[in-house]
Amino acid sequence: MTPLLGVLALQGAFAEHEAMFGKLSAATVEIRQSRDLDQQLDAIVLPGGESTVQGKLLRDLGMFDRLRELIANGLPVFGTCAGLLLLAKHVEDGDTHLAVMDMTVKRNAYGRQLGSFFTRAEVKGVGDVPMTFIRAPYIESVGEDAEVLARVDGHIVAAQQNAMLVTSFHPELNDDLSMHRYFLDTMVLRRSSGA
Fold first, then answer.
1. Which residue of 64, 91, 169, 195 is surrounded by the most CB atoms within 10 Å?
2. pTM above 0.70?
């Protein structure tokens, strides 16, 4: 079975996610309007970009409530950078949007001096992963239902809760497929097989 992933394509690095999942033989469809959410999707991808813009567009296009309902009902979701912010229940110095994942996030946490940087770090269940940060948030804390997967300089940069996976870095901007493969294998395919 080829899973179908809906990639939010309103703004940000959505094409890069599509390319990564394509290399893993997963099908993607761009989510641009409300009716795109009516398809039989196996997962949603919320890309990096500007969370404020994406949140406003989701509301303006009438997609917000439907998307939130799908995720709250267990549809797997992978949020990177801005996507992480969209999912967070608590955002310091910013608005909350979908508010489905129990975490507190600090926006633009690395400031201008470290606005963009690259490193490698261990991700639980995945291994050593290259990480590109671009004016990234980090997770200050997670609730008891969420699990920390990675830290960089003491800050949480990857976590999961049920079928929600988030990273404050951009795995789609490197050649390494491990984060996308992890999402597919542990959340999307397992759910579709009924495991």
1. 169
2. yes
